[in-house]
Amino acid sequence: MGLIIGVVLVAAGVILFVMLPVLRGDWASMGRSEDEVTEVDARKQAALRGLRDAEYDYRSGKIDQADYEVLKSDLARQALEAMEEESAGGHTADEGAPTDGAMKRSKGSAAKGASFDADGDRLEAEIARVRKGMAEGRTCPGCGHLNVKKSRFCTGCGERLGEVATTAGNPVSA
Amino acid sequence: MKDNGKFFVGLGGVALVVTYLIWTGVSQTMIYYLTPVELIARVEQDPTFHHVGVKVSGRVERGSWNRAEDELLHHFTVTDLIDESVRFPVEYRDILPDTFNDTENVDVVVEGRFREDGVFEATIVLAKCGSRYEATAEELLG
Amino acid sequence: MILLGELALWIALPVGIWGAVAGFVGGRKERGDLVLSAEYSVYAVFLLLILTSVGIITAFVTDSFEYWYVANYSNRELPTFYKVSGLWAGQRGSLVFWALLLSFFSSAAVFTNRAKNREFMPYVAGILLTISSFFLVVLLFADVNPFERLPFAPADGRGLNPQLQNYWMTIHPPTLYLGFTAFTIPFAFAMSALLSGKLDTRWIVITRRWTLLSWFFLANGIIFGMRWAYEELGWGGFWFWDPVENASVLPWLTATAFLHSIQIQENRGMLKVWNMGLVTLTFLLTIFATFLTRSGLIESVHTFAENTTIAFIFLAFMGLMAGVSILLIAWRYPHLKSENQIQSFLSRESAFLFNNLILLGAAFTIMWGTLFPLITEGLTGTAIAVGPPFFNRVNLPIGLALLALMGIGPVIAWRRASRRNLVKNFRMPVLVGVMVIGALFLRGVHHGMALLTFGLSAFVMTIIIVEFVKGTKARARIEGEGYFPAFYHLVSRNRRRWGGYIVHVGVVMIFTAFAGVAFNREVLQTIDPGETITIESPFGHEYVLTYQGLSSPRGENMVRQAVALMTVARNGRPVESLRAEKVLYVKWESSPITNVGVNSYILEDLYLILENVNDLNGAFENDAGAQRATFKVQVNVLVGWIWYGGFVITLGGIIAMWPSRGSTTPAPRSKTKTEGERPALAARS
Questions:
Q1: pLDDT digits (tens, 9 = 90+) for C313-370
Q2: Is A30 close to C477, i.e. CB distance below 8 A?
Q3: Among residues C85, C235, C230, which one has the least CA distance to residue C164?
Q4: Cβ-based neighbours of C684, under 8 Å, separated by 6 or more
Q5: Is A128 on the interface with C (CB under 8 A)?
Q6: Chain C residue with minimal CA distance to A138?
Q7: Cα-only R_g, chain B
Q8: For a 10 Å CB count at each end of chain A, is N or C smaller?
Q9: Partner-chain contact C387 B67, CB within 8 Å
Q10: Neighbour-count burial for C294-304, b at 16+ CB within 10 Å, e otherwise
């Protein structure tokens, strides 16, 4: 007898637990949260990591200077575009059509070619800052201000600082 | 297109090598996997079959196991799983698996060659203890 | 308690089905309440399966032999240890165990993503619950219910197969199962990406660690299996190309390929369709592995009893999952186009691709060889089999190619490597490899393939060591650090890469150990107490074993045992003695079990097998005259390097998986149970 009551209780408990959200109208969050990696962000991080790895590869003698310069400018351009996209419109809507995205990128980069040198300095500074930021604290993607470790808001512009939240955490090896 | 081209060249190359390896591997190491009934039938049909490597699955006949004293030499008889009258003696000169015995229903797979003198010269013996099969309710309750 | 466990299974199935439906519908219709319900269902199924597992274990521990499953795998005198592991000892319990682990990982996946990656989670929950429900359906309706009862309880159970009565029983199956079930998570995310249309690299980034975890458990599980075979089967071998062994290696091979090819997608946006295919294939192979073990389709010493119902159900399930995955990939194909191209044959992309093709080639050949009897019987009526000679032959060149790639990979640059740089970077390692081959040759090693293996191993080791050195130096220079901090930061800033190199070192050690098999020695002798057996190893060590005699102590759950004692002298000096045994376990009196004695040294193992006692019954009775016995003594060269390599792989894997700063879950955001979430949802759409 006691067993039957126990089982009924367990069954009822489980069913109640599972149906609770529907009964009470609790909704799980289903959209993107502020903290998450966006596709643009992932691209930027990949480009910046690629830059860092390219530098190490060059210094350890795996690639020539000529190849390194080409690689650097290519990756720098990608990083730049991603950063511009990011600061321009917040999170870009990515409905899973990367082919369009890729085409947009390549078109955009053709236009940017002309202004690359002018942006070169800014890029170098940004890259150095971001690299340092990855090493120590948090670099604000909006204004570029270097913030103290674990800051949640940028002390330069007040923007919410996104966490570099790739779930695996490890920079992609190259 | 260009990217696909390089990729498929690589794929094709590896596929070719793998196919070659499998082809030669199989043709040089393959052995027939037969039941005792099939084995004896084959050998009767084609006496050259005595020289072919084969693998035979059957059952150890109860009470047929004999180990020579002081010598690593085992003798036992293998019967067909379906027709127990079909059987042949086996000779084996290596360590038998622990699951091997001749007191229960032990299924074996022997690999080697069926000699002209009617004895199977085994190079490999695998045994699956009959009692490894899950017992039915009757067997459990005795 | 046991009854509760049984009923928990019945409750779990409708909950699982509800959750799966709620997940898919909730995701499609953007109904957050259904999604939350689906996620709760994931937790609920896990809790219920815990109840079920506890119920089964309780049945074992309380000797409840009225349960068919307990009666078949336990007996009163069985040590408690093995009663607990009875959960996975047989077909039925192991299905519950699989479901338990799957639901555990599912819960972990849902929990760690409760505040992020939300666009994926509805479908992830749906897919995971679908798969869990499949296992529940099998358990409840395919005549494999572990709670099936006999008309009355027999006095005692049949006992556990003595070959399973060793501590590896508690380690090897669980580790393998952890590996198999963990891979369901990446698969679920991949399918979720296809369903939701979020086809960028995020699903890969999210599941990277899960893939690593699964790979890690699979590798260790396979190595544990080898160790078990080596220590327990008494032949000195560790791998037999048994169908079930082969089946466990297949998903490991494709998972290894996947671990490499996702890097190409992350870095260069290529191989998107390839990766979708690989993750699906790996998942299917995990199901195939368990299918092969359960169906009795191919004879193996590992299989559970044959069960054709299960065979068909699993086949149908695999077909369904394969079909759905292919459809989804085809549907999303336009969005899976590569963003870049391979620019040069001489590039890391190219090397990784070769790696993939070779690993898949190995998987294909192993699959082919394993299924060959079935295929030939189906096509010609006569079964034709291939055995270890086939597998060894075919996999040798593949293994050598993989070794070479492990050396080439780290050195070759992305996109386009310059030939000149490659030559410059290869010069020393190649030299080292050649010198090693030369030195070994002069010392008398003339086995061609082994020499090649050793040479390539030296080549790879040199390259990896140089990588660490160069990387440390470069970092020290750029960041202005000392060498020690530079090394530490180097590794911790890029754990995947450097952890990966350490894993490669472990793999190289294992391949080297395989080559050592060619040099094993053995001696077979029948002797009386006082006599000796002498054996010399290829390294020049001489072992003299002096037979002391047989004793017959009583052990737990044993009827009788005969223990042979040998004192050992190594190069004239006494070392640890060896014991080899024949044991008769309770309920299994017709099959004495052979236990070997092993002394392990760095370069070789001394391995003692008690092959036969002339008068075993006399020995069991401690009869002084019944001491004459036949022994096989082996020197197994380099076999220890398999286990050492396993440790290194474990170390590298842990480093690669170790979370770094920035990967911690964001400050806890409670799943807001208020209406507040809905506006957020509306704002986004």
A1: 999 999 999 999 999 999 999 988 888 888 788 888 889 999 999 999 999 999 999 9
A2: no
A3: C85
A4: A31, A32
A5: no
A6: C662
A7: 21
A8: N
A9: no
A10: bbbbbbbbbbb
